[in-house]
């Protein structure tokens, strides 16, 4: 027969499964299918039944205490908190969407068994872990970069210039686009980020420890993706790059970046550079006796960003919707308690497959000066 704490743990597990179903549906912006609806309803009924059983058990415990009836003290074989954490983390990730670590539930250590009639004390060591959007991913989305999620196999992205249709006379053929285009292929390249957790750390049983580690691992993946995107733009848009002499960076060159892609209908356009170049532009006047080139996070009337992942001494301008990032099969979290078991360590590894490139290199202009940055 299960005790009250075991019933509560069973209820928490079912609630976490219900939450995982809802998070999946909301994350994919759709309605529940029949299977998901049936599973959620069945779990809901089981939770309701457990609520009633727990209520009755708690009330009976109160009555037993009033009647002087002895409280049964159950003995439970202790488990390793290391194994407990491994199992919890593995199951939690399976329940959630591994691309964002949703659905992580509660990790509960073994009950502390008392020798008095005060009952069993259930020790909750970690509440729901919330993983926020990584700064790198948030930055790419704020730029308007085109994101292809959940890819399987190589993904061919059409790479072509913009073309214009023409008005024609009645019964006449329309002009053909006659565009020649090349393609870029997004092929998943593996990114990994690993952290080891010692048994001593686990003994702290502090939820913030696990939250910080998982968040840091995910942040590291997206930071690498941002670095890669700028490197790929440098390659794909190499013909759009201008190098100028030391000490000759001025407002006219930055304005010329806009003019150089003026033949396009610009969409999500913005300037991006490093924090060092950003600082230089904030103290450099745009025109004589005018405000600085960089003011209120704008340059030449466009949004401007200074990020460390941009290549040094470089200013990028373009329609960022023409930059693409693909992710393959989401992000996987691997919990390995074996490899470093002799050292008392659990290895957490985050693995993702990503690639990036330009759908239209003509949509970008790159300005570089080796004396800045």
Name the descriptors.
373 residues, alpha+beta, phage-related protein like fold, four-stranded mixed sheet, 15 strands, 36% helix
- Which CATH first-tier class of the largest domain would you pick? Alpha Beta
**Helical segment tally?**
8
What would you report as the Rg, rounded to the nearest angstrom?
29 Å
- Tell me the span between the first and last alpha carbons: 69 Å
Shape: elongated
User: How many structural domains does the protein architecture include?
Assistant: 2
CATH structural fold name of the largest domain = phage-related protein like fold
For the biggest sheet, the summary is: 7 strands, mixed
Could you characterize the architecture of this molecule?
The protein is elongated. The chain is built from eight helices and 15 strands. The longest helix is centred in the N-terminal third of the chain and has 34 residues, at 34-67. Residues 70-78 and 96-127 have low confidence and may be disordered. A seven-stranded mixed β-sheet has the order 7-15-12-8-11-10-9, covered by helices on one side. Helices cover 36% and strands 23% of the residues. α1 runs antiparallel to α2 (34-67) and α4 (135-143) crosses α6. With 373 residues, the chain is α+β, with helices and mostly antiparallel strands. It has two domains: 4-126, no CATH class; 133-373, phage-related protein like fold (Alpha-Beta Complex), CATH 3.90.1690.
């Amino acid at each position: 027969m299960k005790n009250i704490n075991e019933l509560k743990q069973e209820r928490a597990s079912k609630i976490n499964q219900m939450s995982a179903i809802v998070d999946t549906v909301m994350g994919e912006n759709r309605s529940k299918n029949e299977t998901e609806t049936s599973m959620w309803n069945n779990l809901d009924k089981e939770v309701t039944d457990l609520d009633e059983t727990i209520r009755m058990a708690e009330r009976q415990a109160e009555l037993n205490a009033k009647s002087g009836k002895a409280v049964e003290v159950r003995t439970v074989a202790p488990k390793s908190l290391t194994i407990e954490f491994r199992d919890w983390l593995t199951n939690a990730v399976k329940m959630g969407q591994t691309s964002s670590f949703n659905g992580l539930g509660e990790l509960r250590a073994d009950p502390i068994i008392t020798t008095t009639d005060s009952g069993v004390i259930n020790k909750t060591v970690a509440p729901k872990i919330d993983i926020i959007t990584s700064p790198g991913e948030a930055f790419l989305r704020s730029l308007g970069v085109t994101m292809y999620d959940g890819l399987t196999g190589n993904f061919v992205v059409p790479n072509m210039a913009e073309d214009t249709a023409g008005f024609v006379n009645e019964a006449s053929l329309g002009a053909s686009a006659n565009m020649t285009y090349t393609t870029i292929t997004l092929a998943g390249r593996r990114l990994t980020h690993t952290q080891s957790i010692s048994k001593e750390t686990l003994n702290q049983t502090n939820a913030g420890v696990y939250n910080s580690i998982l968040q840091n691992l995910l942040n590291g993946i997206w930071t690498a993706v941002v670095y890669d995107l700028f490197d790929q733009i440098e390659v794909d848009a190499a013909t759009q790059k201008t190098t100028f002499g030391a000490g000759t960076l001025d407002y006219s060159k930055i304005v010329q970046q806009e003019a150089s892609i003026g033949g396009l209908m610009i969409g999500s356009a913005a300037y991006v550079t490093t924090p060092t170049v950003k600082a230089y532009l904030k103290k450099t006047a745009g025109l004589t006796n005018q405000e600085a080139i960089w003011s209120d996070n704008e340059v030449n009337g466009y949004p401007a960003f200074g990020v460390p992942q941009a290549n040094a001494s470089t200013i990028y301008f373009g329609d960022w919707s023409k930059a693409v990032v693909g992710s393959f099969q989401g992000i996987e979290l691997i919990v390995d308690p074996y490899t470093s078991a002799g050292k008392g360590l659990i290895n957490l590894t985050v693995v993702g497959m990503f690639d990036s490139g330009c759908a239209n290199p003509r949509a970008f202009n790159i300005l570089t000066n080796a004396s800045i940055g």
